[in-house]
């Protein structure tokens, strides 16, 4: 039998790697452009197929996780995404880059429907474990900007992909050796912790779809654009890629810590109570960021990532609370298919908006989109608590 703490530890590490791998290119593209003879806006769209695969692939990977084996799928995740990162380090033209980034996105699509379902299955307190898991994911986001900036500056952009790829494959080998195929029969496996009245379930579905589209698009746009935004707007503070990466990492750490806090709140309060304040802060902060630079921009960016990253924890907890074990990977698959498909489209949207009017136009557009998150929080129905089953871990 698998130790819950061991499984959750490996799944948290996978969440770190998942987001780290998906955002290496966003940080490295600043120095890759001159090396490949292409401008930022020309090179960035090559990441779009990978982000689309990140979302679309979740439908298949979630189904395989429920019907085959979540453990086996996670072994494939570790080894596949590690090999794909290494492959990016050896590309010689934009077409090869696009194929390698697509491969990263395809293997990355395994984590969220499969890994998140494993977290819920082994969690004692759902909100706490979701929050901790979110911290790992967003530390991956933060570390990607920081480590890629440092490695890119001192070793070159190719090693920024190769080194984490080798490490990831090593962790995958350890996971395969220490975690066995799970038998989900006859165990609690974190049954749904809350319910809503059947006649109100449509409100949950509509709310989830709206907020996932709005927040996933904004979340991805911000994480993709932030390194370049800081490179442009923090010129008065620094022009060092390594220091810019450190600043971006510091901003992301605030988002990661927020996810832990939100997770703890979700164990004590209804989803609507937690979701509404997070929804209200995003639009005005994005609007303000459009005209800020230097230290004010850093402070507003901290507020943006806190709001966006906290919303991600709310969305994941919503699925975890309201779905049963046998359908959980597929429920997360649909949630992430919608979210990451929207997020994939955001990469091209960031490039297009940047060409139209720079980051001011882009940030104004996403501020308007985030108004939808307020409506989504308002329509959430009252929640009916379900007592934990006898003998629950």
Large-scale geometry:
globular
Average per-residue pLDDT, rounded, comes to: 83
> So how many helices?
14
Distance between the termini: 14 Å
H/E element string?
HHHHHHHHEHHHHHHE
Description:
The structure is a single chain. The protein is an all-alpha fold. The protein is built from 14 helices and two strands. The longest helix has 42 residues. The relative contact order is 0.17. The C terminus is likely disordered.
In short:
This protein is mainly α and 393 residues long. The protein has helices spanning 4-36, 40-43, 48-67, 70-88, 94-108, 111-122, 126-154, 157-178, 201-233, 241-266, 271-289, 294-322, 328-369, 371-378; strands at residues 194-195, 384-385.
List keywords for this structure.
393 residues, mainly alpha, Growth Hormone, Chain: A, two-stranded antiparallel ribbon, 14 helices, 2 strands, 79% helix, globular, disordered C terminus
Give me the secondary-structure topology.
Layout: H1 4-36, H2 40-43, H3 48-67, H4 70-88, H5 94-108, H6 111-122, H7 126-154, H8 157-178, E1 194-195, H9 201-233, H10 241-266, H11 271-289, H12 294-322, H13 328-369, H14 371-378, E2 384-385
Antiparallel strand pairs: 1-2
